[in-house]
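ok so I'm stuck.
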Amino acid sequence: MPEQDIISESYREFRSPVKIREDTFYERLARRAGSFLKIDTKNKRLEGAIEFAHLNIKPRDVASLTALTAILSFVPVIIYIIAAFAGMALDILFVTSISLAGIAAAYYFYTAPRRLKKRYEMTVGADMISAILYMVIYMRNTPSLEGAVEFAARNTTAGMQVELAKLLWDVRVGNYLSVEDALLDYSEKWKGNREFGEAVGLIINSTRQSGARFHSLLDEAVRIVLSGNKETSQNYISNLRMPLMAVNAMGLILPVMGLVLFPVISIFLSVGPVPLLVMYDILLPIMLFFLMASILEKRPVTFSKIDVSRHPRLPPPGKFYMGKRLVSAAAVAFLVGIILAALALFLYSAGLACTEQAGKIVCQESETAGFVEAGGTSVLSFSVLSALLFTLAITLAPGTYFLLISRGRSKLREDIRSIEDEFKEALFQLGTRIRSGVPIEKAMIESIQRMEGLKIRELFLRAAQNMQKFSMTFEQAFFDKEQGAIRFYPSTLIESVMKAITEAAKKGPANAGTAMLSISRYLKDLHNTQEYVQRSMHGVTNSIKFQAYVLTPLISGVIATMAIVIIRILGQLQLQQSAISGFASLPVGGSFAFGELVITPFQFIVVVSIFVAQSLFLYGYLLSGVEVGEDPIRRSEILSGMFFVSPIVYAAISVISLLIFGPLTQFNV
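replied:
not stuck anymore, here's the structure
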């Protein structure tokens, strides 16, 4: 009987409040391939990755999808062979490129479970520090290992909740004799994170101690997991030099060499824009993606991201507030893209020169229509300007979307980050007063007076007002469903800490004060570690930002200008080839003649523009991954900046360099 058929209803109810994620497109695609082409495999590594990441697929689905994609990748080759026998000519470079792209897709599908496993490690593993911290906070007040695990399960994010909920369930159904055995086995699952296993061992050992020894083991557990994070982050940064050099080579040096030479290759070999499109807008981005993915796969887990999903003012996914009205971000982005694309189309049509040939109207791009004329030819032709507008259309549209969906959410996240940073100081002040014998309500009022200028002040002020105006208890002042202060500051960290403190307060004010002081020390250590990791990452992240914001648009703009200049010069030479004395007979021997110039400035800039847009997305993906790990809000924030700044720089550099070098193409042969 299938495993899902014997899962009890109580287990479904137990884990129903949390869900790691919805099925990905890859999982749905793999299941379809598995139902169409059944290929069994006994790859233990693949099976382990699927099980570890809780993927809703089986190894045979992955094998079937890989095989099916590999088979389809040879279809263009078969079509080419059939066309050759039929006397039809197809572009061999284009066919080869499509086949290589198919093989790359097959490899991507086969290795996807491993990458999803790593992503899951980054997502769930980032909560390990929080889980250890919550367990230690709970055990300082109530030395119960099972209670500590339950407390951590309630206060971590969805992925870790499922992990810890499954652990507790296994204990309850008898798969483990005790929570201690389950924790030890669970830490073995994450044996790659050595510090987590050591911290779990210390927490377990603390249950056999008492007094100062008990507290020192708990403190040591927090210290180990934080210091271990520092060390692994530093090692990761040290090993990034060579991968980043490879990214620079593939993202800058290779495009410069190839794109500059392509116009010459085009006219001598009559190569059109399609192979350029395939190589630079399909194959090269695929290689860059795999390289960047390998960089992020080695990224160590750091800290859990800030969850703003419960904030009462948060707009629904994909929407933003315009005043008090909800508006679709995708609709606005689509409108921006349509307007810019329409302007590009209008300019392109204005730059066409149409003639009648053999009874048909033939239109071609004209170099005489445009702005800034030199020698009877436009330096800034309408076709070039329309291509630059097309660049803005394919970048500012997604940039608008990312900006709109991240604007409100980024502000909420930064506000929560600020109050979390200030929380440790507020706890220290409040805990000091309570521990000295001051009643909780009075201690809160005195502490609030010393929090001027801090955002965290509003949290405690609201709680104090609840206690004064509505006669609420300390717990109600923070956690009342309607007026609770926590409701307006949906920070998982603050909420979980205040839950632990309210539990400690039930044993007396002095116990609550002691809990506040110890937790304040933990939060200070956590903050210092976060600051250290962020400072260590600055060199790497600044390098990626410089390449995305400056180097890529600057070099791409210069490349576009150089290519246009070369295309124009070659075009003029081609038109005047027969008028050049001695051109047909060169000293080196043999005859020489230009082929047909089959690529236009518009086509070349469009190819470069697509590559720029893809590069920006990949750099945003890399930067957000290195900086914060799996965080959609931060990724959208980074991408919005890149998609607005870099394309404008690219277009501006292209126009300026054309104004400088464009007139040099006007000469008489």
